[in-house]
């Protein structure tokens, strides 16, 4: 014999939104106010109150980021003492905030400091499962002692031999270049898959005065091009075209690496954050098994972040592409190397991007009569 029984369970299928850290930057630098604190700021924040009335490298770069960040800009700031360690400040900040970008306003003066920055970023990834990209300042020119040739040699030496795909080095040529770049990367008018080189985003705003060397020579496009070739991230201009723009945000990846520019790393990091959440939800869940039905179902399951990132919009007859191309059937491969271990291979494909455009013109004289 038996009695009637009804059970009603709420099933959590993991269909909610993924936590978003993209376009959020953490600024770390020497400050005079709120040292040791982690401040949340936005376009309406009173920086004189939060960061002190006096000018500082930290405050100057935060202002530049705000000016270039567009609508709904937000960031975090961690002021440190003059002898403070930015890596310790980063650890403290990550206990409460989750940034995508870490802007270090303490200039790196040697290759070892760039390597240390990459080591720190990798430790953050392995110990905290947080993926950050470190954009670290390098010194601007000393107009009292350096020529542009000497400055170029010194800057080239800073990055020489460094393999650090999670680090970008930004010379403070105008005093606030780092902040300008970070603001441009955090601007919500463009995708994280867009290069900061994108001219349609508009010119740089609030860039500091054009620097000169000890001989009174202004910064030239030739020097900027040489700095870019040395894997440093700098601004640029176009002859006969108004405004100052940015070049690539170069990462210090090894030659031939996949992550030599920041937009490639940003999209793969975004996909990785989401896929990790999905993978955790499948631990110990027999819905993921080696049957053909399960493999097909879980390909669709793990493909969800790619589908969301690939959504494009058509407006006014023009297509605005998603962050990546739409996933194909072979974008996901699931392999079982042992009874209890599964490996998922995911292919993320970015769109082509025109960074060098050559236009060829010719005359059509076929209809011209003598």
General description of the model:
It contains ten helices and twelve strands. It has helices at 47-51, 57-68, 86-94, 111-128, 148-159, 177-186, 221-229, 262-281, 292-302, 304-309; strands at 25-30, 39-42, 74-80, 101-104, 133-138, 167-171, 235-238, 241-246, 313-315, 318-320, 332-338, 341-346. The strands form four sheets. A six-stranded mixed beta sheet has the order 2-3-1-4-5-6, with helices on both faces. Helix 2 packs parallel to helix 6. The chain is globular and about 100 Å long. The protein starts with 24 loop residues before the first strand and ends in a 24-residue tail after the last strand.
Features:
Rossmann fold; 16% strand; 6-stranded mixed β-sheet; globular; 10 helices; alpha/beta
- CATH architecture classification of the largest domain: 3-Layer(aba) Sandwich
Continuous helix count: 10
Output the CATH class name of the largest domain. Alpha Beta
Give me the secondary-structure category.
alpha/beta
Strand-and-helix sequence, N→C? Answer: EEHHEHEHEHEHHEEHHHEEEE
The CATH topology of the largest domain corresponds to: Rossmann fold
Portion in strands: 15-25%
What would you say about this model in short?
It contains ten helices and twelve strands.
Topology at a glance:
Elements: E1 25-30, E2 39-42, H1 47-51, H2 57-68, E3 74-80, H3 86-94, E4 101-104, H4 111-128, E5 133-138, H5 148-159, E6 167-171, H6 177-186, H7 221-229, E7 235-238, E8 241-246, H8 262-281, H9 292-302, H10 304-309, E9 313-315, E10 318-320, E11 332-338, E12 341-346
Helix pairs in contact: 2-6
